[in-house]
Amino acid sequence: MSQISEIAYAKVKTDKVDSHTLAQLLRMDYTPVAHKVSNDKRQLRDASRARIMLVQRHTSITNFMQLLLAKYNFDSPTELSGIPKFQYEQLSEVEALLNDQMLDLEKPLFILLLSRMMTFSGCSGFPASGRGTPLLSFLKLTT
Q1: Which SS3 state, helix, strand or coil, does residue 20 take?
Q2: How far is CA 126 from the centre of its chain?
Q3: pLDDT tens-digit profile of 82-100?
Q4: Cα(133)–Cα(130) distance, integer angstroms
Q5: Rounded to an integer, what distance in angstroms lies between the CA atom of residue 13 and that of residue 107?
């Protein structure tokens, strides 16, 4: 356990005691060096978190759509009528929007991750297929 975290577990918790402990740690040069994430890694981390949030929302919407069908014992949304049909249509629109948002977010993530993979030592790229590399195929599909 680091010396700084010991302050949190101290039996006597006052500002005076904490400041004295911190002063002692600073005097003995026991304070850890703060780590700042680079902008590239922060962008990747933020984009990954945003994608996770979108996937969770998409899963929630999809599950709700399935529950709506199960509630009325239907296998297909075409069998719904009235308010349940309206609910299902609204959920379908939200699902489509989330799909679009995930794809928009995944395109730059995919390119960034591939470029990082290419920088690893010993990685000579991806083998060419009949349509070119996977990256080129992906870019053709997304443009």
Answers
A1: helix
A2: 26
A3: 999 999 999 999 999 999 9
A4: 8
A5: 50
